[in-house]
Design brief:
The complex is a heterodimer of chains A (about 110) and B (about 150).
Chain A lengths: L4 H20 L4 E9 L2 E8 L6 H15 L9 E6 L16 E3 L8
Parallel strand pairs in A: 2-3
Antiparallel strand pairs in A: 1-2, 1-4
Chain B lengths: L1 H24 L6 H24 L6 H11 L1 H19 L17 H5 L2 H21 L9
Helix pairs in contact in B: 1-2, 2-4, 2-6, 3-4, 4-6
The chains are: A alpha+beta (about 110), B mainly alpha (about 150).
Chain lengths: ~110, ~150
């Protein structure tokens, strides 16, 4: 059965809300984006710290698993990636040049 | 076919293991970027051997591999994803030529980011992943030791 555009839009808006909600609980995140990489959706998280944080990687993996197994997001394929704090110029290796937007804490409403 | 694929993957596991050991034992240079990358590649071959054994097929893409692990092998995925993440930072993250003066502390090098690579990558993730894969695979392979 062909996926309808309205259904995908609904799932995508649920995804954005979920990501915003998750960010609200994360004090170590400087910026977070949804973008495209290798033609796939990517949740790119830039941490405030410049150091590897094993606990944060576990939290990100938990989010990834939760989203991948959520029936409300059954047609969404998303990967997650964290990078340490870098200037915005350094994000080009990971971000699509035009298809990207920042996720706000609490969601992107308004 | 699955049995042949498992054996092929385990051969690649051993080759990656040999390269990883050579890098770790080189006292002249830390080679942190390559430790992270080869550790990740060893993990790829291990999980693909497991997927072939348990599900009868290997992954057709990187994304398909992640999808399969996220759904069917969550405990393994929790060790695999940080290895993937570290290898991405090691391979692709770089600073602009002139980052400019700033009061913000930015990433300077992978070695500075990862700290003790053996602790973070090998002990922290790869060894855990190997133990989990070994339980499901039931085939011998050389474990990483540091």
């Amino acid at each position: 059965m062909q996926l309808q555009a309205e259904e995908y839009e609904l799932q995508f808006s649920i995804l954005v809300k979920r990501l915003g909600s998750w960010l609200s609980g994360q004090t170590g995140v400087a910026k977070a984006y949804v973008t495209l990489r290798d033609s796939q959706l990517l949740f790119l998280v830039v941490t405030k710290s410049t150091k590897y944080d094993s606990d944060f990687e576990d939290a990100l993996s938990d989010l990834d698993i939760e989203l991948a197994n959520d029936p409300d997001l059954r047609d969404i394929t998303l990967s997650v990636l964290s990078i340490p704090n870098v200037p915005s110029d350094s994000l080009s290796s990971f971000m699509h040049p035009t298809t990207n937007f920042e996720i706000q804490r609490g969601g992107n409403d308004g | 076919m699955a049995e042949t694929t498992v054996k092929d993957r385990l051969r690649l596991v051993e080759r990656n293991h040999d390269a990883l050991v050579a890098l770790i034992e080189d006292a002249r240079n830390p080679h942190d970027e390559w430790v992270a990358t080869i550790a990740f590649y060893k993990a790829i071959q291990l999980v693909e051997a497991l997927l072939a054994k348990r599900h009868g097929s290997v992954s057709t893409s990187h994304f398909r591999r992640l999808e399969r692990l996220r759904v069917h092998h969550k405990d393994i995925y929790k060790q695999f994803r940080p290895l993937y993440n570290a290898s991405m930072v090691a391979r692709y993250l770089c600073l602009p030529d002139e980052p400019g003066s700033t009061s913000v502390a930015y990433f300077s090098s992978f070695s500075d980011y990862i700290g003790d690579a053996k602790a973070a990558i090998i002990n922290g993730r790869l060894i855990q992943l190997e133990a989990l894969v070994e339980k499901g695979l039931g085939e011998p392979f050389t474990k990483t030791r540091v």
